[in-house]
Amino acid sequence: MGFIANYIANLTPVALGLEPKRPLLFSYYATHRCNLGCAYCSDGHGIRFKEDPIPELGTKDAKRLITLLSRCCDTLDITGGEPLLRNDLETLLEHARSAGMRTILNTKGPGLRERPELLRCSNVLVLGIDALEESKLAQRIGRPIDAAKEILSSLDYALSKRRETGTKLALSVVASPGCLDSAEQMLDFAMANKLGFHLSPEIRGTSVHPALRNNADYRRIIDKALSAKKRGACVLGVPEYLEGIRDFRPFHCHPLLMPTIRPDGRLYYPCLEYKKAEISVLEAGSYPEALRQAKERQGRIPDCGDRCHIFCHMALSLLQRHPISALGESRHWEETGKC
Fold first, then answer.
1. First CA to last CA across the chain, in angstroms?
2. What pLDDT does 23 receive?
3. Rounded distance between C-alpha atoms, residue 187 and residue 200, angstroms
């Protein structure tokens, strides 16, 4: 069951006001460990992931989890924490690919130069880098300047190797009050280098940072991204998403388009932000069975309204709800990194 087949299967239930039937991709939080201190890092309750230690599956069980997930869709996003802190990350990515999955690695990239196989094992590398200036990036990650230099070195390395490895590159940027000039520079850099680019506003808990509301500079950057997208730049997210994070419109979230799995293999239901993860996918024996048990225990998915204006929730939900706009999104992924 591939991304496109699952997307098509979801069209009718969504049009009827029901929840989608199938996931478009899975997000596996392979670890909560992290060696950085980003101020905006939050699990929806104001807690940094590294402050919520959760036991991690060993390599064997993590591979078994990935095999079970591969039976439901063909795309796996591995994230954290900082996933590069797992020494077996190459093994997990390669196993996902051997199971027929398209792999997305979400990281800030510390130490990427020393692990070249990570690029070869990743169909898409998403680098969460919020500034190009070392001093500003150091402030954003809460670490000394050397840590910022290492992350920017990883960006240079990924750029230099993308043709050789065939890896598509995307920049993930969090727009924060006081740092909007850096977000705009990242947009310009992505356009100049034909990288994928996606932007999320900083969230406090599950609500947008209040200083971004009615912020003329923030709105101008979103409008600039919209204009770039219309000109063919690889700005990711349907136009309705960009307009939504500009105006902070309420939206109907479909969190199970991207089910989220904890480091211990438990399914967050309905999403990470609710912090309920009672069912292990491994113990259930399949994702559909884990989902059935979670629904039985916790009931229907609530309508959150004016919350979670972030890429992983809002962009996917609006992608599914706007099929005409969605037709243009695959073109952006195909063009990412061709230069």
1. 31
2. 98
3. 12
